[in-house]
Amino acid sequence: MQQKRTGSRTLAGDAYEAIRQAIGAGDFKPGDRLRFADLQALCDMSVTPVREALARLTAEGFTVLDDHRGYSVAPLSLAELRDVTATRQLCEGEAVRLSVLNGDADWEARLVAAHHLMARIPQVRDDMPTAMREDWEARHATFHAALVSACGSPVLLEICEKLFSRADRYRRLSVSLSGGARDVAGEHRRLVELALARDAEGAASALREHYGLTAAALEGFFAV
Amino acid sequence: MQQKRTGSRTLAGDAYEAIRQAIGAGDFKPGDRLRFADLQALCDMSVTPVREALARLTAEGFTVLDDHRGYSVAPLSLAELRDVTATRQLCEGEAVRLSVLNGDADWEARLVAAHHLMARIPQVRDDMPTAMREDWEARHATFHAALVSACGSPVLLEICEKLFSRADRYRRLSVSLSGGARDVAGEHRRLVELALARDAEGAASALREHYGLTAAALEGFFAV
DNA sequence: GAGTCAACGATTTTCGAAAATCTTCTCCAT
DNA sequence: ATGGAGAAGATTTTCGAAAATCGTTGACTC
């Protein structure tokens, strides 16, 4: 076996990326068991790096471990969506507040740049090519990361990152329905305005509301 | 090789416990490299479970991974102490607030019981036998866990747990100096009083102050 | 018919060694 | 002296198979 590295410096890193992407793409559904045999076939490597990748994914909440019964994709639920949203409102709200208070001109530049890149892709829609949608997701993540990047607290930042990717799973579940009554681009624009105007409380409120609206839009999926 | 399990259901779990304890006990100092050979000797097992244990410890911030250069004990610093403290004040403050708002009689009972167990051990002092100090640490952790346990947000709770053990490393660094001017037991008692009186904001403030004082007492260690 | 238990198959978990990578030291040219 | 190439040693990372464990099936008893 033994094939070349794609991006990271270890096979375990590659496995992490591959499995995470496969989960994001829906190849494995929430609750599905993740058998080592399948994952080894997917990643084309031995069990050891796969195991390490799953350990990392479990730490971030993507997968869960049941002793001697292996790993499975973490289930999605309305309760967790609400929980993650509330915790995000707390942590990222504070992080953006601190960012606005502490951020310098470099931070402003990063924020404006990230926003511009995201805004260039018109609107997330179902009929978009997958590649463009993936591209938007990446820029969206970069934008939100930029927003909080000047908070000055690495610990808080790490928490925000993890919460973001955890919420991301819910967002990807529903590319379709957000199209309607909501002005996501406007919300993002307003966040930038408030940040540049150095309105810390306002930006924090706007971000909390932004997440609240996103969660509300997703709740429909669990009305089954 | 292949020895019996101590508590968990897998060797990896045992390794996790053993290494975590060894770090807590100071057998490995912050910044020390953790060589697999040493850890295998310590745990008396092969490399695979040790590797999994380190992956988990890294996820919780006890250790850090440098690709192809292995793991080492996460360094301690004044900056991180302050960062962790501030983040704890944010997250645990909110968690205790929610706990007071949502907690039922069972929660009150858990809290009172945990406090009682902790209060029975008089005071943490240098001349205490190690076993008793370890015992107090465990009860202290249980007490703080009980305090936030009714917040209703598993995600927030998990964050609090991780932050607690991360801060724990700093506390264990200094069993000695807290003895002086501070009334830790009184602070704990006051927390229980406020919680039982259903003063959510008061309890949150008291907890934030409690952590602030703890951090302040520890800052001396980094004045080197 | 319901319940217990042993054996089987599927899967995870662990092992011990091989391969890959980094670090250090030596030696040589500048 | 200084700096760099290259070999040797130490350590991590990965492999492929063996061992341990779990869930299930099916025979056997009450």
Secondary-structure map with pairings?
The structure is a homodimer of 224-residue chains.
Chain A: H1 11-24, E1 33-34, H2 36-43, H3 47-59, E2 63-66, E3 70-73, H4 78-102, H5 105-119, H6 130-148, H7 154-172, H8 184-196, H9 200-219
Antiparallel strand pairs in A: 1-3, 2-3
Helix pairs in contact in A: 1-3, 4-7, 4-9, 5-6, 5-8, 8-9
The structure holds a DNA duplex (30 and 30 nucleotides).
Protein described:
With 224 residues, the first copy, chain A, is mainly α. The first copy, chain A, has two domains: 11-73, Arc Repressor Mutant, subunit A, CATH 1.10.10.10; 78-222, Four Helix Bundle (Hemerythrin (Met), subunit A), CATH 1.20.120.530. Chain A is 65% helix and 4% strand. The first copy, chain A, has helices at residues 11-24, 36-43, 47-59, 78-102, 105-119, 130-148, 154-172, 184-196, 200-219, and strands at 33-34, 63-66, 70-73. A three-stranded antiparallel β-sheet of chain A has the order 1-3-2. In chain A, helix 4 packs antiparallel against helix 9. Chain A is globular and about 55 Å long. The termini of chain A are far apart. The relative contact order of chain A is 0.12. Chain A binds chain B through residues 8-10, 13, 48, 51-52, 55-56, 59-60, 67-68, 80, 83-84, 86-87, 90-91, 94, 153-156, 159, 163, 166, and chain B through 8-10, 13, 48, 51-52, 55-56, 59-60, 67-68, 80, 83-84, 86-87, 90-91, 94, 153-156, 159, 163, 166. The first copy, chain A, binds a DNA duplex (30 and 30 nucleotides) through helix 3.
Main features:
homodimer; 224 residues; mainly alpha; Arc Repressor Mutant, subunit A; Four Helix Bundle (Hemerythrin (Met), subunit A); 2 domains; DNA-binding
